């Protein structure tokens, strides 16, 4: 279907640039899905030059791992991820209910185990590469903090107590998920493997978490967290954050750029070979009801993160 994995020596170049086209698209679609993970990555790379070296090593490990497991039928043992939810609120509405939080945990379990009700909608063209990732999530604890901030932005202040936020709880063995009002039209963002432990985790705007309570259409099916946790497990946007870019996965078609709303299938790329785009992939920018699959190649990248020697091997049971 497409592209080979890039070598580690090329990754620094990939991480350091995002196409102007995709930035313009994001700016012009403030009411549509916006994920700030790539922008956060670029900021972190500027602030911490050693991070690029760490990420290159992770990519080298991932490339070797996926090459040695070409069938993507990997058994890493049972991976169950405890989730610490850090809720920062100013208003009563922002202090979301436990039911809304649990609904998000339920969605993650369905989406990462191919038990989501829309999994059967995957087109026949992609049925051979659709994946059951096989990772489960359990709510570990909920921590709440009242704040005077109306929005938190994407500079990781929410993760720092000296800036009014909440510090990560044992981030080497627990996924920290911060819930707040982010602002700027951003639905969420994640930290890729290789970043600092103190800021590791995922941030989701409370209006786009879970399936009940404050969850707001068309992002009310919990897929924002599925998308961001995908980043946390080392997945890139499916268009590679560049026109006809690479997401470092061999079995996902080359996309022109992000897709929004719910595109009519089949949606053809104008990139080389004009492939049908996998718009229903969780790592695109479609509305929640329009995304419902990971690919086997993406599963392999996630498996590599948790494999012995992987960057998140400490999460193994």
TrEMBL record:
Keyword set, alphabetical order: Disulfide bond, Hydrolase, Metal-binding, Metalloprotease, Protease, Signal, Zinc
Domain of life: Bacteria
InterPro entries listed in its UniProt record: MetalloPept_cat_dom_sf, Peptidase_M43
Domain (Peptidase M43 pregnancy-associated plasma-A) ranges: 188-306
CDD domains: ZnMc_pappalysin_like
One Pfam family, short name: Peptidase_M43
Signal peptide: 1-19
SUPFAM superfamilies in UniProt: Metalloproteases ('zincins'), catalytic domain
Gene3D superfamilies, per database record: Collagenase (Catalytic Domain) (3.40.390.10)
GO molecular function annotation: metallopeptidase activity
Stated family: Belongs to the peptidase M43B family.
Entry-linked PANTHER family: METALLOPROTEASE MEP1 (AFU_ORTHOLOGUE AFUA_1G07730)-RELATED (PTHR47466:SF1), PTHR47466
The protein, known as: Zinc metalloprotease
Organism: Flavobacterium chungnamense
Phylogenetic lineage: Bacteria, Pseudomonadati, Bacteroidota, Flavobacteriia, Flavobacteriales
């Amino acid at each position: 279907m497409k592209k080979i994995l890039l070598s580690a020596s090329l990754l620094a170049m990939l991480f350091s640039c995002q196409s102007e086209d995709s930035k313009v698209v994001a700016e012009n679609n403030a009411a549509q899905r916006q994920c700030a993970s790539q922008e956060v990555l670029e900021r972190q790379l500027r602030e911490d030059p050693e991070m690029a070296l760490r990420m290159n090593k992770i990519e080298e490990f991932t490339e070797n791992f996926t090459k040695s497991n070409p069938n993507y039928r990997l058994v890493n043992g049972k991976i169950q991820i405890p989730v610490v939810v850090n809720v920062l609120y100013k208003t009563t509405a922002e202090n979301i209910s436990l039911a809304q939080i649990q609904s998000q945990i339920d969605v993650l379990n369905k989406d990462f185990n191919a038990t989501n009700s829309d999994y059967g909608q995957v087109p026949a063209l992609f049925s051979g590469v659709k994946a059951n990732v096989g990772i489960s999530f359990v709510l570990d604890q909920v921590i709440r903090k009242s704040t005077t901030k109306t929005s938190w932005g994407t500079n990781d202040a929410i993760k720092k107590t000296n800036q009014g936020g909440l510090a990560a709880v044992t981030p080497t063995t627990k996924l920290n998920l911060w819930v707040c009002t982010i602002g700027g039209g951003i639905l969420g963002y994640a930290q890729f493997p290789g970043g600092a432990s103190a800021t590791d985790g995922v941030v989701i705007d409370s209006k786009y978490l879970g399936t009940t309570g404050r969850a707001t259409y068309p992002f009310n099916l919990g897929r924002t967290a599925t998308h961001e946790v995908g980043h946390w497990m080392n997945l890139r946007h499916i268009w590679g954050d560049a026109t006809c870019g690479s997401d470092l996965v061999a079995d996902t078609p080359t996309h022109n750029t992000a897709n929004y709303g719910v595109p009519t299938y089949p949606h053809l790329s104008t990139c080389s070979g004009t492939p049908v785009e996998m718009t229903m992939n969780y790592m695109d920018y479609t509305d929640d009801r329009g995304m419902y699959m990971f690919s086997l190649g993406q599963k392999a990248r996630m498996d590599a993160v948790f494999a012995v020697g992987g960057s998140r091997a400490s999460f193994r049971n």
